[in-house]
Amino acid sequence: METEAPAEPTGTILVVLSDASSPLERKDGDVVHEETATFVAELAKPLEQLLDAGYEVTFASPSGRKPSLSPLSNSLLSHLLAYYARKPTLSQLQKQRAESALASPRSFASVTDEEVDNFEGVFVPGGKTPMMELGEDAELGRLLWGFHNLGKPTAALYHGVYALLSTLHASEYSGFAYPGYRITTFSNPDEKSNAPNSGPLISNMEDALKAAGATLVSEKDQREMGEITHDRELVTAGNFTGAKTLAEEFLEMLTGGY
Q1: Which domain holds residue 234?
Q2: Could you tell me the sign of the dihedral formed by the alpha carbons of 109, 130, 137, 230, in that order?
Q3: What is the pLDDT of residue 85?
Q4: For the CA atoms of the chain, what is the radius of gyration?
Q5: Distances (CA, A) of 37 to 29, 53, 59, 70, 243
Q6: What is the pLDDT of residue 240?
Q7: 46 inside domain
Q8: pLDDT, tens digit, for every residue of 108-138?
Q9: DSSP letter at 69?
């Protein structure tokens, strides 16, 4: 029986990760000693869909350190190994590239504006740690402004939506890159229900995005849990249950479906 030829890469996606892990310090000063980091459930499914479609991925984080992975989810490396075990037609070299890229992400500062021109799009998964650092990272803000100015597909999931606020801190630009955009994230009541005995991480997501000029579409405004919001080149989801749908929409956008 003939085997199916491996999918040809159709471009490269920049995947934004966080370097932060534990402990977490909330806005009210309460320190939460919980191990938390990139939540694999919010990264693995979109990553699998991107690889299935033939895209290469480049990982990047503030300092380029190997990311911490949330103990609430399985090892991403294990997931990648299982993924490639199910995809025997993909080359060993392609497998090694993905594993190597995850273990040694690029730093944001090392990604040049010229390289942004060559990426097809950018994806920011969640986990609580993006709210510890990504929203204030000037280098990430520079990169997101680059994708925005070129109209390239940009996807952000759950806490990863906070990274959009980094555009306020990019020294080469002025203001928020997405004023008036409809963005889905969890609401202030949702955030409070997730941490009833302490304050928010850094700031309330809803308040911060509204103050920047975004038009918030909270989960409570949508018909079903896991719905997404697509506005121009930006697609967002306010809950990890939207990971699959967000990835599907992102892939449509990458092929010109917006």
Answers
A1: 12-19+32-254
A2: positive
A3: 52
A4: 18
A5: 19, 27, 15, 5, 17
A6: 78
A7: yes
A8: 999 999 999 999 999 998 877 677 789 999 9
A9: B
Report the C-alpha gap between 134 and 223 in whole angstroms.
29
Instruction: Please report whether residue 68 resides in a domain.
Output: yes
Q: How many domains does the chain have?
A: 1
Whether the CB-CB separation of 70 and 35 falls below 8 Å is answered with yes
Q: How far apart are CA 170 and CA 137, in angstroms?
A: 8
Angle, CA of 175, 181 and 183, to the nearest 5°: 110
pLDDT tens for each residue of 220-248:
555 455 689 999 999 999 887 888 899 99
pTM of the model: 0.80
What local confidence, expressed as pLDDT, does residue 159 receive?
Answer: 85
Q: Is 89 exposed, middle or buried (0-12, 13-18, 19+ CB in 10 A)?
A: exposed
User: Could you tell me if residue 204 is inside a domain?
Assistant: yes
Residue 250's CATH number: 3.40.50.880
Nearest one of 99, 92, 159 to 125, comparing CA atoms: 159
Task: Note whether residue 242 is domain-resident.
Answer: yes
Q: Give phi and psi for 133, each to the nearest 5.
A: -155, -30
Tell me the H-state helices in the chain. Answer: 40-52, 76-86, 92-103, 113-118, 130-133, 138-149, 188-194, 205-212, 243-254
The phi and psi torsions of 11 (rounded to 5 degrees) equal 135, 180
